[in-house]
Amino acid sequence: MQDSPEYLARKKFFNRLLTIYGRKPCLEALQDKHVQVYRLHLSESNKPAPILDEIIALAKARGAEVLYHDKRQLSHISKNSKQDQGIAMDLVLAGFTEHEDYLADFTPGEHTFIALDSVTNPQNLGMIIRSVCASPATALILPRKGCAKLDALVIKASAGTLFKAPVIRCDTLMSCLQAFKTKGACVVGLALDAKTSLENESSAGTRIYVLGNETDGISPDVSRLCDEQLKIPMRNGVESLNVAVTASLIAFRSLLRQ
Amino acid sequence: MQDSPEYLARKKFFNRLLTIYGRKPCLEALQDKHVQVYRLHLSESNKPAPILDEIIALAKARGAEVLYHDKRQLSHISKNSKQDQGIAMDLVLAGFTEHEDYLADFTPGEHTFIALDSVTNPQNLGMIIRSVCASPATALILPRKGCAKLDALVIKASAGTLFKAPVIRCDTLMSCLQAFKTKGACVVGLALDAKTSLENESSAGTRIYVLGNETDGISPDVSRLCDEQLKIPMRNGVESLNVAVTASLIAFRSLLRQ
User: Fold this and answer.
1) In which domain, by residue range, is B78 found?
2) Name one GO molecular function term (chains A, B) (predicted).
3) What ipTM was estimated for this complex?
4) What local confidence, expressed as pLDDT, does residue A1 receive?
């Protein structure tokens, strides 16, 4: 039963859903033309309010299912009864894939992946999603653990690209990188003190570039998994670049090299 | 008198000063090891407070002059009596030059400049300063009119690089670009609908890349001054990149091309 094609297709679909909550965040998401809405969840206890009418109208116009729940059920869906304001919404992240599904169909070749290790600032995460989506890079590898939560701030900073960006999801970066390595991928850690500099790196084959936390860099466990280390050379004694800028330089590099 | 070498040197020095105000912004600036402090201005009416003691101690340790003024004088210095909280500070922007001074000594050659036309978000401005400072680009051209004010937000987003970044100051971008053009510079406007794409552009000589406002792009007057237009190609139907990301890709391009 759990291996039937229907079950697996359903699981894949539900893995692509992002649940957000709160009246303003839901309204703003619906005002973004890139958003795909699957379901709108409302609490039966909501008192009438113009913002709710607006949300319901927009959701229906997008073809979303509108469901009513009791307060307790809604808090199960939003997972945040204190801040959900009686509303939650399932959005479809069309470009999201679980790393097991991705690797099952993966053909090694010339691939650039950007992987994030504890990037906690939602603005940086949103900008990285936007840049990787626009760039020639194959996909972004985004672990559930350690990175900024996908929320209204990330959606905004991504300029709506969150809903179409190619993103490979995993629980922890460690297990995902290990799985990619068995497929022949080379894991490259961005490090300020690396010996190899961007302009001298040979970048053939499947390469995963790991970017670490804004303050602490790559975590020791992930660092040990790296096959190579790489730095971006900097002038004027600048110590580091913004992590979203670093991700963008790597993601667009193949284009700039031509 | 107004043309004496002493007068001109003094004028150059004062053009490099940035006055900030408010207790928290001044303390945070002093906690940044990159900051150069010229003078600390205090109102005689300030009541004793631990944060003031801390600020005075840090400013003295950096060799800054500490001056006391009456409230009215201080508001002349801070230019914001409502928010100065009885304190202002003159910081030295070591890499700043007025465009007239810069062009007087300018030798045409292989130069990349990034010029900003109404970039109003302080975080974007700070990130651009940080990236240009670290990059092989020659300098950032930053007009006083239209762009975000240099304040505590910009300092923070620049990660302290504001105090050493090579920045050419002008009143308006128009007059500065015109002056550069008389020296043979080519002005290139970044535009989403440009025909020439980054990977096909020949980038010899002195080139000034103009980046426009986050929402509206380059203003019509500046656009008419551009000799060429350039776009960054984008995949997945992404409409635009963050302006700081665009600036970084242009600024680091010569490095990535090698």
Assistant:
1) 17-92
2) RNA methyltransferase activity
3) 0.90
4) 56
Last residue of a domain, one of A70, A92, A114: A92
Q: Mind telling me how many Å the CA of B216 is from chain A's nearest CA?
A: 15
Which of B192, B215, B242 to probe by mutation at the A interface, max A CB count within 10 Å? B242
Q: Is the pLDDT of residue B258 over 70?
A: no
Q: Where residue A27 sits, what CATH number does that domain have?
A: 3.30.1330.30
Is residue B8 domain-resident? Answer: no
CB contact under 8 A, A123 and B127: no
Within 10 A of A12 (CB to CB), how many other CB atoms are there?
13
Residue B256 has pLDDT above 80, yes or no: no
Which residues on neighbouring strands pair with residue B113, listed in sequence order?
B139, B208
Q: Which of B134, B249, B258 sits opposite A238 (nearest CB)?
A: B134
DSSP A95-160: TEEEHHHHHHT---SSEEEEEESS---HHHHHHHHHHHHHSS--EEEEESSSSPP-SHHHHHHTTT
Whether B9 is covered by a domain: the verdict is no
For chain A, which ranges sit under pLDDT 70?
A: 1-2, 258
The Cα B133–Cα B143 span in angstroms is 17
- Whether B166 sits inside 8 A of A127 (CB atoms) is no
Question: Considering its fold, how many domains does chain A have in total?
Answer: 2
- The answer on B229 and B154 residing in a single domain is yes
B1: in domain: no
Confidence of residue B44 (pLDDT cuts 50, 70, 90): very high
